[in-house]
Structure formats: C-alpha cells, structure tokens
Recover the amino acids of this structure.
C-alpha cells in the first residue's frame, strides 16, 4: 500500500476535477430538458414490465381496489398461483377513477367522488416489485358522470330529450362527440403515466341494452358511421399512447369473431386491428345465446366455444401482429341452466384459448371472487 502522505493533489488535478464536474452537470441538464414528463413526451422514469409469453390475468373492479379483503385475495392469488397479470378499473363501469386524477374534467363531472386508493404509487409498486403485468381497464362510452354533467355530449332519449339510460339505469356518452373522445384519451394518458404496462379499453362500442328505439345520437348511426366512430377513437388513442411505450388493447363482443358486419355496435375486428396490439373477445359461454356452428347450446361446451371463437378471430386476422387474448367465464351461468362453473369448466376454457393460439387469458368475475382450484400453483405451472 502506498504512503498516503506522498499522494498530494496538484492544481492541475483540481482544475481537471472541476472541469469534469461542470461537464457532467451540463449533460444532466440537457438530458432533463430533453425528457419532460408531459402527455406528449412519454414517461422515461417508468420501467414497463414486458408482457409474459402467456398472460394469465384476473379482473379487479373499482370497488375491489378499495376493499381490503378483495384486494388482498387478488394479491395472494398473484403470489401463489400461475397468475401473472391483473386488470384494474381505472375508469370503471360507473365512470369513477380510483386514484387522485390530474384530469380537470374528471373533477368537474364527479368522477373523483370516490377515491379507492390514496397511496396509488405504493399500490402500483407492490405489483411492480413482483413482476406482475398491470393492465388499466378504461370503460369508454358507458359513462354516467360525463353524460349527466354534459347532457349535450350524451346519448339522448328521443322521448324526453334527456340522457338515455340503459337497463342498469346508467347514461352513455355519445361516441360521435369529440369531447367524449378527448376525455377518454386524457384518462388513458394519465393511466400510462401511473405506470401501467397496458391500457385496455372496454365499452368501445355503441349501446345495446335498454329501450333502443328511443336512442338518439348527434348524427345518424349507420353501420359505416358506427365503425368510423370506433376507428376514430382507436386512432386517437394509438397516437396519444405511442410515446408512452404501453400496449393498447380493446375488449370486443364474443360474436365479433363470427360476424362480418359490425354486430350493430361498431366493432369489426379487421378494421380495429391496425390500431391495437391486443383484441380481447369476451368469450363467456353464457354470452353466446345462439351458440356457434355445431354447438347450439354454448354453456355445456366451454372448451369448444373458446377454442373455435379464438381460432376464428385469428384466422380473420392472419398476417397481422394483433394478439387475441380472451376474457373467460368464472361466474355462474345466467342464460342456460344457472350452473356454477367449476374448476373443470374454467380450465377447459383456458385450454381452449391456448390451444387455439391465444397469447393468454383473463378471468372475469364481477364480484371479484375467483375459483382458486381452477388455478395451478406456481410450482405446478413451472413443471
């Protein structure tokens, strides 16, 4: 070891150190100026979780985020089973946003009346530390707060001139209104800035349930106009989210895999595909009231419904990079014989999806109560 007394810094060395310090400071300032955290500049401080080869997710509702028991049950499943992803309501079925939003319109319309999670950064950190793939669910046109606060932007009831209400007594925003699209784009950009890996848009469609004869839009809802409205929304979303490095997904009706028209709601998968990374058909057997070819009764055939619907969608999108990742049924039947779907039926759906070429699956239960026995343990999944 050298004698420390012989090591004496010279004036030249001091000048070199000072020059290096100034240089480093200047470079840092330039890099900071080049990377502002605004909606158009991306979020370089956020490390995105790459999607698993097979996304295996569950849905966490707006209220479940704030309910300790339900929230904990989801976290336990993510820690002990094959699950590797979670879909959370960022703008749920009733239009509320669960965290403190900086979107001004969200405050004005009452979308912030119920805050489910005050420490959102800590909440998201829990998932990031465990490499859980996080997906933000944004319900688009079914938006009770927005439609009621701005009736001029709402789907109208031709009988009263007031906002039309669906079978759940909830108002809808008009898909033709640019202000509605602007609001949803702002919410989506903020979700990306909150650290989500993927933004998934639900109710990207025209309404179907309620007194449809009384529905009135700001323009005539021809099939072409409906499709143009949905494509217009997705184009805006794709452009706004591109700088943020998140994947874009859209939920679609199960029958869109089989029908060549827009199913009366503006969804045609070939036209939607160029503007999303993932299409998520809702392949709940209970939702297939007319069955599919060779399977008139859907509920007793969970594997076949999911398998052939997934294959049909993939065949129509052949040559495109779009993934198909379906929603699967983990709830009691409501359309056929009210049967409870057991682990057997749930795993049959998973198998049907993967064997057809899906890049994963997501389980839906509106009560956020999932069938633990349908899920493999971490050890079983690794075998």
């Amino acid at each position: 070891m050298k004698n420390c007394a012989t090591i004496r810094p010279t004036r030249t060395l001091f000048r070199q150190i000072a020059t290096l310090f100034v240089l480093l400071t200047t470079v840092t300032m330039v890099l900071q100026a080049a990377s502002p955290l605004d909606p158009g500049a991306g979020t370089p401080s956020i490390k995105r979780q790459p999607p698993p080869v097979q996304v295996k997710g569950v849905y966490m509702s707006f209220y479940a985020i704030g309910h300790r028991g339900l929230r904990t049950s989801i976290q336990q499943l993510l820690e002990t089973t094959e699950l590797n992803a979670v879909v959370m309501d960022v703008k749920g079925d009733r239009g509320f946003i669960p965290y403190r939003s900086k979107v001004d319109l969200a405050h004005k319309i009452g979308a912030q009346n119920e805050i489910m999670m005050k420490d959102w950064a800590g909440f998201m950190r829990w998932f990031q530390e465990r490499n859980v793939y996080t997906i933000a669910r944004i319900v688009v046109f079914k938006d009770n707060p927005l439609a009621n606060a701005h009736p001029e932007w709402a789907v109208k009831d031709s009988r009263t001139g007031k906002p039309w209400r669906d079978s759940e007594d909830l108002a809808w925003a008009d898909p033709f209104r640019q202000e509605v699209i602007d609001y949803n784009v702002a919410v989506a950009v903020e979700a990306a800035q909150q650290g989500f890996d993927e933004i998934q848009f639900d109710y990207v469609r025209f309404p179907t349930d309620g007194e449809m004869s009384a529905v009135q839009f700001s323009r005539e809802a021809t099939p072409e106009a409906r499709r143009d409205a949905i494509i217009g929304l997705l184009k805006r979303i794709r452009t706004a989210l591109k700088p943020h490095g998140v994947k874009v997904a859209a939920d679609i009706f199960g029958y869109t895999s089989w029908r060549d028209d827009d199913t009366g709601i503006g969804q045609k998968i070939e036209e939607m595909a160029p503007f999303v990374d993932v299409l998520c058909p809702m392949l709940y057997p209970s939702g297939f009231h007319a069955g599919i070819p060779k399977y008139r009764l859907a509920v007793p055939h969970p594997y076949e419904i999911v398998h052939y619907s997934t294959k049909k969608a993939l065949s129509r999108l052949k040559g495109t990079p779009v993934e198909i990742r379906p929603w699967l049924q983990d709830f009691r039947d409501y359309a056929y014989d009210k049967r409870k779907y057991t682990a057997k039926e749930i795993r049959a759906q998973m198998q049907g999806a993967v064997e057809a070429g899906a890049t994963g699956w997501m389980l839906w239960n509106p009560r956020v109560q999932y069938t633990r026995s349908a899920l493999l343990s971490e050890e079983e999944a690794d075998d």
Residues 11-34 form the longest helix (24 residues).
